[in-house]
Write a structure and sequence with these properties.
By secondary structure, the chain is an alpha/beta fold. Helix content is 28%, strand content 17%. The radius of gyration is 15 Å and the shape is globular.
Length: 198
């Protein structure tokens, strides 16, 4: 029986997020499915799963994005398909805050602030603590109906007033991925080897 592919899902996919996610994935020694990036998500969940299966090793990182749609958009449709696929094991979801109105939001397990601090509650788009457990974003509502083991809140990836800029190594999104790996565990040897190099 084939072992499930371990993945991390990021609920953002614009050009800033793509560059930051690619950098962070490299930092943790994972594989990024860049084709999943887009605003909104350009390919369907089935195609993303096919790309995940082709990845040489994990953890595999994919992006989903609704482009501000406060209803169930392409990103959430893809996310739901991926999460429920029998060949996929979701290690965690990085839920990205946005200014989208009229959304339910999702309760996070913890968040990474723009200063790299781990907090129990949610953050806003700038990565600032909101003192709430609910994070509001355009591609997170469906997470409340999905069985995922860990939901990590984060501000606008690759931005946050320069604190997550690729030029400085995308440290905030990198830390979010590292925390998921740390808390969920990974038997991937490539990850262990690469981690020592950063």
């Amino acid at each position: 029986m084939e072992e499930k592919r371990r993945i991390i899902i990021v609920t953002d996919g614009d050009s800033f997020a793509r560059r930051a996610v690619e950098r962070a994935t490299k930092n943790i020694g994972g594989r990024c499915i860049s084709r999943s990036a887009g605003n909104p998500t350009p390919i369907r969940g089935k195609e993303i799963v096919d790309f995940i299966k082709e990845a040489k090793h994990g953890p595999v990182v994919v992006m989903v994005d609704d482009r501000g749609n406060n209803h169930t958009g392409k990103g959430e449709e893809a996310l739901e398909y991926i999460v429920n696929h029998e060949d996929i094991e979701v290690l965690g979801v990085i839920a990205v805050a946005s200014n989208t109105q009229y959304v339910d939001g999702v309760e996070v397990d913890f968040s990474i602030t723009c200063d790299g601090e781990i907090i129990d509650g949610a953050v806003d788009k700038l990565g600032e603590e909101t003192r709430e457990k609910i994070l509001f974003g355009d591609t997170v509502d469906i997470l409340g109906d999905c069985r995922v083991p860990l939901i990590v809140g984060i501000g606008d990836i690759g931005k946050m007033d320069g604190k997550d800029d690729c030029e400085i190594g995308a440290p905030i999104i990198t830390k979010a991925m590292e925390e998921i790996i740390h808390r969920r565990g990974s038997r991937n040897e490539a990850f262990k080897e690469n981690k020592g190099k950063h």
